[in-house]
Amino acid sequence: MALSKETVVDQITVTENGTVLYREATRIMEDGVQISQTYHRSSLVPEADLTSVPANVVAICNVAWTPEVIAAYQAQQAAQQAQLVAQTTTAPTA
Predict the structure, then answer these.
(1) Which of 9, 19, 45, 76 lies 20 to 30 A from 53 at CA?
(2) DSSP state letter for 18
(3) Given the DSSP bridges, would you call strands 33-44 and 3-14 parallel, antiparallel or unpaired?
(4) Rounded to two decimals, what is the model's pTM?
């Protein structure tokens, strides 16, 4: 009876704003037959640190994160931050 453990990226998705979502499956195998599987999901926004990210996910990020996608993401974040600040400064106090 030989047990082994393998972790693979089994899903990668790129959203409209450039966020990369990926899922890693950890499989426990016994004599070549899968007996258990768990999942871990992660997300990366444009320009995120790709240190310790699986190579196939990095490859997708490098293709998806064009300068235009990064600029649009940064503009979206700046607009959301400005809206949050505006709401905070104009909110009535009790």
Answers:
(1) 76
(2) S
(3) unpaired
(4) 0.82
